[in-house]
């Protein structure tokens, strides 16, 4: 654990809290992609298969439970809550996200560090997380006008991955025993690059104190 890893985890946690705050207090999921939330739920379910079989630390277990619980809570709100689900824009959220799942699974079967069920599922979650934000970015591109909480949520998600990249660089130079993890590194870099356009417009909107608007 180092300051960059901790900052990344806390930023990730803040992104989830911002989204839950929007959904729970405003009773709205407008601008939020259900497709992306389904992908993230699958990511965490595949990644944390060891939650009841391996204990690493209290911090590790608590964070796993938080991300699993929050992901499925968000899905419940968007699909089942009688008020929240009415604000979901199904007509705009049309990205065919199931076409992302199968290629990621096949890639995990072909390229992994160890061919075991848990390792393949973990690798699958890494690949899928790299592209899980795509339906959300496409939805924002279509609707163009982005409310503050949705903008903050997406920005924090991207910042979390950026901080993790800094964490990897730090560990590579500071820890002599730190080994290379090409799968994680390349997937993380791809994930961060997907946010580049959004970051540009988000930072400009904050700097100029104007509502975030994405180009058509």
Automatic annotation (TrEMBL):
Q: Which Gene Ontology cellular component terms are annotated?
A: endoplasmic reticulum membrane
Which stretches are transmembrane? 55-78, 99-115, 121-140, 152-170, 182-203
What Pfam families does the database record attribute to this sequence?
Answer: ER_lumen_recept (PF00810)
From the UniProt annotation, give the residues forming the signal peptide. Answer: 1-31
Q: What molecular function does GO assign, one term?
A: ER retention sequence binding
What's in the keyword line of the UniProt record?
A: Endoplasmic reticulum, ER-Golgi transport, Membrane, Protein transport, Receptor, Signal, Transmembrane, Transmembrane helix, Transport
Q: What is its main location?
A: endoplasmic reticulum
Q: What is this protein called?
A: ER lumen protein-retaining receptor
- Quote the InterPro entries the UniProt record gives: ER_ret_rcpt
Q: Which PROSITE patterns match?
A: ER_LUMEN_RECEPTOR_1, ER_LUMEN_RECEPTOR_2
Q: Which domain of life is it from?
A: Eukaryota
| GO BP | protein retention in ER lumen; protein transport; vesicle-mediated transport
Family, as annotated: Belongs to the ERD2 family.
Membrane-protein topology: Multi-pass membrane protein
Q: Where in the cell is it found?
A: Endoplasmic reticulum membrane
């Amino acid at each position: 654990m180092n300051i960059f890893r901790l900052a990344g985890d806390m930023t990730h946690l803040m992104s989830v809290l911002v989204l839950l705050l929007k959904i729970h207090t405003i009773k709205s999921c407008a601008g939020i992609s259900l497709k992306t939330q389904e992908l993230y739920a699958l990511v965490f379910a595949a990644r944390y298969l060891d939650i009841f079989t391996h204990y690493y630390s209290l911090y590790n277990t608590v964070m796993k439970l938080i991300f699993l619980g929050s992901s499925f809570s968000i899905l419940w709100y968007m699909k089942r809550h009688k008020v929240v689900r009415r604000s979901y824009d199904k007509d705009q959220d049309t990205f065919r996200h199931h076409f992302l799942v199968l290629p990621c699974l096949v890639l995990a079967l072909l390229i992994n560090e160890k061919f075991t069920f848990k390792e393949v599922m973990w690798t699958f979650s890494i690949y899928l997380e790299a592209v899980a934000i795509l339906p959300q970015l496409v939805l924002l591109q279509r609707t163009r006008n982005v409310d503050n909480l949705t903008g903050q949520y997406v920005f924090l998600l991207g910042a979390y991955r950026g901080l993790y990249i800094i964490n990897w660089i730090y560990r590579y130079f500071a820890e002599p025993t730190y080994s290379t993890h090409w799968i994680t590194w390349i997937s993380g870099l791809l994930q961060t690059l997907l946010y580049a356009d959004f970051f540009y417009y988000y930072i400009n909107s904050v700097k100029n104190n104007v509502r975030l608007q994405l180009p058509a």
